[in-house]
């Protein structure tokens, strides 16, 4: 089951009607959401529902969790050439723990698709597939479902709220972010300009665009050098690959029902195996298997994709003369394209979260 989001402290309770609508949005419009429901939800996100909120000081920042997770991954590619493309929880953690909010008296709360926190491995933050998962951040629950333990902990203490994405409503988390921020007169931290929510009558139009221009702030991740971090910590400057993939997880639990369904299709108990024997024992000996433990996907468009227009094959870049601008730092990924920078411990890869614009003028 998706994570049940805890109620955030310090936020004034909305009206009964607004609470009902917010609960509907948090469920992603419901399991039977239709395009008309999505349009109604967009209109609800566009209009301020608490008449007193516009007069209250801004005390909440709503973090776009999916945007943070993907932008962090893209930043590793831009700085280090790390081509593996998957959402990473460290982007959410860095934004959540940034001092910039506390210096202004803002309390951060993140919104994120539920499938990033719990669900199939392909759609999980820090997951992707059995070869790219971060073993310290994920846990197998059984029946092909996984959990990101970092984001789960944030949700259980109320710092993160999960949003379902039913068919035809993949932008449910965006609408929930906008609706909640307007409800509490908060601000939004995201590099998404939400332009698709500002077009047409159902998207909020000029009013929502003006509100976002005043209350949304973009950000960046300033990725440092793993080599410099190792030198500063007194370690060898050579960066060793961190544990990554299912090989660093405990053996999977037996799943006799699932093994029974998958085996026997060709008259055997699996590739290269003869008939007979206990299916549950055979399943536990087989170890981690994509067709058993990582089947299905909540984002089929993202399976196996990598950063870069050419799918990871870089074209030769023309060198510029003196004063011709900065170039991407050469890294281990130039010779080892699959070096798992995304799985390095925090103290091995320094990254700073920073806003692109000051917070002056936020609120109202």
Assign the structural class, choosing from mainly alpha, mainly beta, alpha/beta, alpha+beta, or little secondary structure: alpha/beta
- How many strands, which pairing sense, and closed or not: the largest β-sheet? 5 strands, parallel
Tell me what the CATH architecture of the largest domain is. Answer: 3-Layer(aba) Sandwich
Question: What's the average pLDDT?
Answer: 76
Strand content: 5-15%
Helix content: 25-40%
Low-confidence stretches: 1-40, 259-286, 298-303, 312-337
**Overall strand count:** 10
| Strand line-up across the major sheet | 6-2-1-7-8
Cα shape: globular
Q: What's the gyration radius in Å?
A: 23 Å
Number of domains: 2
CATH class designation of the largest domain: Alpha Beta
Span of the ends, CA to CA: 37 Å
